[in-house]
Amino acid sequence: MLRTDEILATIQMLHAEDLDVRTVTLALNVDDCAAPSMDSLCRKLREKIIGRASRLVEVCNRIGRKYGIPIVNKRLAISPVSHLLAGHGQTAALAVAQTLDDATAACGIDLVGGFSALVQKGVTPADAGVMRSLPRVLSQTKRVCASINVASTRAGVNMDAIAAMGRIIREIAGATAGQKGFGCAKLVVFANIPEDNPFMAGAYVGEGEPEAAVNIGVSGPKVVVSALKRRMELGDRLTLGDLAEEIKITSFRVTRVGELVGREVAAELGVAFGIVDLSLAPTPKEGDSVGEILQTLGIAKIGAPGSTAAVALLTDAVKKGGAFASSSVGGMSGAFIPVSEDAALDAAVTAGHLSLEKLEAMTSVCSVGLDMIAIPGDTPAETIAAIIADEAAIGVINNKTTGVRLIPVPGAKVGDRVEFGGLFGSATVMDVRNAGASADFVNHGGRIPAPIQSLRN
Amino acid sequence: MKPQFAHAYVLNVMADDHPGIVAAITRAVSQRGGNIDACSQTVVEGYFTLIMVISFDQPVDPEALAAEIRGSTSNGFQVVARPYQPVTKPVGKTDRFVLTAFGKDKPGIVRRFSEYLAGKDINITDFFAHREGNDFLLIGQLEIPVAHDLALLQADLEQIAAELAFTVKLQHENIFVATNQLRLRR
Q1: pLDDT tens digits for chain B (186 residues)?
Q2: Domain count of the fold of chain A
Q3: A143-158 b/e (C-beta count within 10 Å ≥ 16 → b)
Q4: Hey, which of A19, A367, B2, B138 would disulfide with A13, CB 3.0 to 4.6 Å?
Q5: Residue spans of alpha helices (H) in A147-199
Q6: Pick from A11, A68, A257: CB nearest B178
Q7: How far apart are CA A92 and CA A88, in angstroms?
Q8: Is A57 part of any domain?
Q9: Domain for residue A120, yes or no?
Q10: Could you give the CA distance from residue B25 to residue A445 in angstroms, rounded to a whole number?
Q11: A259 touches chain B (CB under 8 A)
Q12: What is the sign, positive or negative, of the torsion defined by CA atoms of B160, B164, B169, B173?
């Protein structure tokens, strides 16, 4: 028999603190849809998606109702589209993207990830086709999300690919200028991309993954904030170790929700259960904020000295709680700091407390990277590339995933406000200091060699 | 559960809560050579209540046993004892859910929800209710026949809750197990 206090603790998380399953992502390998003709390829792709994913939304809704937990997003991730496009021209890329858009719409799925290429060591003609098609794909489709992996700890940092991505991000922003460059919000440039990430825009199905699997993303910044505040109200003098323990316990509980839902959805769909990714992913809703966790930990102005240490504490405690809760933890699992999607981070940028450089420092210990950051539309492509290179270097040297999702807002200057809407929130355009001063470095091109794995001081 | 001895009885005790109640009850049982086969006890707002299955190798007079326990303290136990009959549960397949409802207190809330559940042949296996200020909370652990459409039950309960200006949730118990207990049920 359940105890009353157990029931009440769970009810509190679910109904007062906005705990939800942020995403159920069906990971589907579509390599078997490759075909010599585009008509055949697109038909097979559409049939496979509809055949495997058409019940996803209905099953998620039913299971969410059974447990009284909202499943906010139902999404699809596919194997890298570059595999399908090998041997086809650039027009093929748009046709495949539109097929993905249409097929997922028919299934009621809001986003599909995997319009991807892995180019950390070199770019194949198919990869180049994917990269060059991004401005058109991301401006002419609604649901398609893209990711390009430009670096890895084993391969090093592909500066040629990064330089190209700097230019392509500017082109995407231009192609979606009417939406303040929103197309860039559907693209992540990664180092050490995880094969099983359920969160968009970076979800895709990597090598070694099953043909189909359900990957779950759970979140819950507000649950963590509330747990910390309740613990503090008990009046004891708490050390940071005590607070880390509280975060760990909360993360355990949150992860369990994901595992419960994920296993049941997978069983109903007749596919493997993949992973549960506990990533504290903020939304613009008040209180649902990683920044507010940092404030609760005692960082009055986010970006002040101590912010990086606080993010490190948070990320590590989340990973520990998640790892104990489930043997299937994967993806990113940590804390996201997407500026436009987090009201407290956005406020810190607007108030001038949080700079791009400090955010970069925080990304060295958070679970992803420079995320949903609006920058001036005239930021040079080489400077965007150099920011990506810095972030990739952090990931490569520290053997972790890092990502960049920058939005050069056409026509916008530092301090302008930009509204992206919905979960993407709004942002103040950040200052990019020393813009243009990295061009010679980026233009050397080539590859920064893979780092030494010993002598790690 | 099979009692240890052939002559089993159900004992129900209510008293003001204070140290020594369980000792007084078990002393009376023990003096007659009895065995305690099952027991559940709780305290609600300072009142102690206990239900116990006990067994003996010889028949005992339940009323005499109850009188002896009543007489074992000056604090005024209310005691009922009667012969134990194994209860056969309905054979229909059920699934376990938790009902929670909260809102401003007024008479009739538990009646509305429990009458609805009874009408649907839903068994309440554990029930908790608490008033704090003007707020009232009830939690029921339920066995729901699997033939029921969960969405319809939830819609009905939400309708009742709306009429009472209450918030109600009906959730499968595994969400509470998953978030509170170390081992996840498979």
Answers
A1: 899 999 999 999 999 999 989 998 999 899 999 999 999 999 999 999 999 999 999 999 999 999 988 887 776 789 999 999 988 777 789 999 999 999 999 999 999 999 999 999 999 999 999 999 999 999 999 999 999 999 999 999 999 999 999 999 999 999 999 999 888 776
A2: 1
A3: bbbbbbbbbbbebbbb
A4: A19
A5: 159-175
A6: A257
A7: 6
A8: yes
A9: yes
A10: 86
A11: yes
A12: negative
Q: Report whether B32 contacts B20 (CB < 8 A).
A: no
Of B151, B173, B180, the CB nearest to A65: B151
Contact A260 B174 (CB under 8 A): yes
* Sign of the four-CA dihedral A122, A124, A130, A134: positive
Is the CB of residue A27 less than 8 Å from the CB of residue A207? no
Report H helices in B43-96.
62-70
Query: Which amino acid, residue A110?
Result: D
The CATH architecture that domain B7-83 belongs to is 2-Layer Sandwich (3.30)
DSSP-assigned beta bridge partners for residue A78: A28
Distances (CA, A) of A127 to A101, A132, A137, A139, A188: 20, 9, 14, 19, 15
- Residues of chain B within CATH 3.30.70.260 domain(s) are 7-83, 94-180
End-to-end Cα separation, chain B, in angstroms: 25
| Domain span at A127 | 26-191
Distance of CA A92 to the CA centre of its chain: 26
Peptide bond into A201 cis (omega under 30): yes
pLDDT in tens, A367-391: 889 999 999 999 999 999 999 999 9
Asked if A408 and A430 touch (Cβ cutoff 8 Å), the reply is no
Q: How far apart are CA A406 and CA A387, in angstroms?
A: 9
The closest of A81, A114, A79 to A187, measured between CA atoms, is A114
CA count, 13 A, side-chain hemisphere, A394: 23
Contact between A84 and A33 (Cβ < 8 Å):
yes
Q: Is the dihedral of CA A27, A281, A98, A62 positive or negative?
A: positive
Residue A94's CATH number: 3.20.70.20
Q: HEC profile for A26-92?
A: EEECCHHHCCCCHHHHHHHHHHHHHHHHCCHHHHHHHHHHHHCCCEEEEEEEECCHHHHHCCCCHHH
Superfamily of domain B94-180: ACT domain (3.30.70.260)
> Residue B45 corresponds to which tokens in the numbers above?
């707002």
Residue of B nearest to A258 (CA): B178
> CA A256, CA A260: separation in Å to the nearest integer?
6
Query: Which stretches of A299-380 are DSSP H helices?
Result: 307-325, 343-350, 356-363
The pTM of this model reads 0.91
With beta carbons under 8 A apart, name residues in chain A contacting B95.
none
CB contact under 8 A, A4 and B139: yes
3-class SS shares of chain B: helix, strand, coil, % to 5: 30, 40, 30
Which 3 state secondary structure label does DSSP give B98? strand
Structure tokens at B106: 């007024």
User: Given an 8 Å threshold on Cβ–Cβ distance, is B173 in contact with A14?
Assistant: no
How many CB atoms neighbour CB B106 within 10 A?
11
Domain assignment present for residue A210? The answer is no
Helical ranges in A156-306 per DSSP H: 159-175, 221-233, 240-269, 290-296
Question: Which A residues, 236 through 255, put their C-beta within 8 Å of a C-beta on chain B?
Answer: 253
Cross-chain residue pair A15–B169, CB shorter than 8 Å: yes
